[in-house]
Amino acid sequence: MALLKMKNISIEFPGVKALNEVDFTSETGRVHALIGANGAGKSTLMKVLTGAYTHYTGSVQIDGKSVDISSPKDALNEGIQIVHQEVDTVLVPYLTVGENILLHGLVNEMGKKQLVRWKTLHQKASQLLKDMNIQVSSKKLVSELTLAQKQMVLIARAVSAQCRFLILDEPTAPLSHAETRELFRIVRELKAKDVGIIFISHRLPEIFDICDDITVMRNGEKVAEEEIAQSSINRVIEQMLGKALDEQFPAVNGETGETLLEVKGLSDREKIKNLSLTVRAGEIVGIAGLVGAGKTELCKTLFGSTAITAGDVLLKGKKLKLKSPYHAVRQGLALVPEERRKEGILVEETVAANLSAASLAQFTKAFSFLNRRAEKRKSLEIIQTLGINTPSEKSKVQHLSGGNQQKIAIGKWLLADAEVYIFDEPTKGVDVGAKRDIFELISALAKRGKAVLYASSEFPEILGITNRVYVMYDGRTVKELETVKTTEEELLFYSTGGR
Amino acid sequence: MELSKPIPAKAAPKKRFELFEFFYKYGTILTILVLIGVFTAAHPSFLQGQNLMNILRSISIVTIIAIGITISLSVNGFDLSVGSVASLSNAIVISMFVWFSQNTVVAIFSALAAALIVGIINSVLIVKVKIPDMLLTLATMFIIQGIALTYTKGATISQNMVMPDGRFATGKISEAFQKIGQVPWIILIMALAVVLVHVLLNYTKHGRYMYVIGGNEEAARLSGIPVNKYKVAAYLLSALFASIGGIVLASRVMTAEINAGTPYLMDGVAAAFIGFSVFGAGKPNAFGTLVGAILIGILQNGLVMMSVPYYSMDIVKGAVLAFALALTYYKLKK
Fold first, then answer.
1. Is the pTM of this model over 0.90?
2. Interface touch B1/A303, C-beta < 8 Å
3. Cβ contact (<8 Å) for B5 and A39?
4. Check: CATH 1.20.144 for B47-328?
5. Do B220 and A357 touch (CB under 8 A)?
6. Are residues A225 and A90 in the same domain?
7. Torsion sign across C-alpha atoms B314, B317, B323, B328
8. Which contiguous run of DSSP H or E holds residue A223?
9. Which of B4, B212, B218 shows the shortest C-beta gap to A357?
């Protein structure tokens, strides 16, 4: 049994008071949820705890004894470990699972020894994996693993060293339902082994499933700390936002027009098989499916990013030639991709350059010269209408929060003025407040008579925002449903292969 | 999960950081000024108009080739074949005059055409076959070098050279062509190249697209930017500028020596990379490349004046490049 206490933690960056007198506790053998909107200061607080920042004020105590954490090494010595969301940044893909798990030992504890004992290494790693009931061979290369397995390797690595407190930073965001269940099993096992777990997530139902305590943060301050049994989802949302969340979803647009987009017997090289669907003008059509059902592949194929091997895509009855995204954009399609940082935004560029990237032709004078004044004016307009929180249109996008980045990824297509908007998991990694903004944006597009495809594995969102739903399973649409007549259970039933 | 308000990178003590920022932006230019000061103190004739012209003339070929490299860098590509392309163009343009007694226009256009063919081969293999640019252009570098050598049969082409059949070559290099390599034309060509590419990269749609592709190719593609077209254009322009460099070189030396263009590759790469940090651009840019070339030119010229033996020149050149790269990458790490 050990008790970790952070007391009166404050930290300031020029112009921003990121944390203000925050208290936080974690007890071994319990799972403590840390919740807050993007920018509430969760990450900053955890960075303080893991020694990434040194210029904070306040104290950290373990079992009443003050400990000095001013470097990542100090944190490790106290048994504080973290598993980040971006697993690929800390794994070596062309080494085996075993080597990755015991990397710390290989690097720091070899001493004068020069030779690696492969047999002992793999034995040790296998034992660790077996203890946690993880079915991955120690000799497999990390590059061959799925994302969920990589995460487990990281957890195994954390546990391989002395680990009293384990921070899981949004571990479930990229996982499927089955993988999440598996992760929770491991979390419970760690809990039984008297590890204190700090669990950061945006998915509230999960938190009520796995956690014992909850701390809610808002604007760099702690607003609540209680046992999970005393809280509820609505209560947490209220605490996060500082106000009651009256209606999360805007009203569904009832007036739909003629069929705008028609997909007939579409197939791609790998995943999509003989898929058909239609979207009317002013309609939001959901593509519901679990991770791996082929939603992203469908979006990319429709957008010309992966090759179509069979089938037709028609817009207003006219057959589209979708050789590349370039052609798709010219014919009136827009895609807000799932992997925002990798595919949607240009982190090194300014907000203005991002917003105009898909429609730069609008902002040119003779001989393709840029009209920067027009670009600035339009950017400011979009920043205002979408409520993008940025110091100016010249700020680099990498400094903005996830929700704001997503608004920019959407905003660039508002300028391009497409006919069909395809959204692939648009609320991934976005906090509750920004989510509502994004829903309103999408709903406004439909009201303007655009056709909207909304692909997501978050079924409550699909139910909240769409007119109709297609359920995808293994690269096909297995069921078409009227949103008002269906339920989350039904969506889950069909998306897990039920008939 | 970042803070909703941006965290300015300057979390450390403010003053020191601004000083560093200052050196990042103006370090290259300061270095140039310091070098000018030192060389003038040692040799007052360094600052004379005649010598400054000399410097500009001596850097013009490097700059033109480096401008081509800058374009390939802007789409996050890399073209190692520019030195060989310059050699090939040099050989073709001189041979057109000397061996085939052609006029100026034919000579220049044959050289440019040959370079564009190389550009097409490079870009198709990079864009369609998807060979990593550095490796592919390394391969074409050897191929083009070999083709240039085979074409000249390993000999230096010059006026009145002895042909294999024992007679003398009768072709003459035209008066007009000789002008290209002389002041002021050679400097004007360089200035024109810098200005044109500067405008292209910073003030046109195409330049913006190229930087966007260089920054995040996948995002650029999914924004509907024809990524492949722009990459092809970048490699074509890169070859084109290399060829212009080779032609200007031919006019200056009036001969085609084997591998004459090769040394320009490394100087060009150095100039383009030094240019990253100029005025805090943080990316390849034409004006910065010019500044980089000027830095190298001044060093070379000043060191010659101070009677530093030519064989130790590369040590200094390399050290300056390392310093400039340190400025760029130390900044990028922040």
1. no
2. no
3. yes
4. no
5. yes
6. yes
7. negative
8. strand A221-227
9. B212
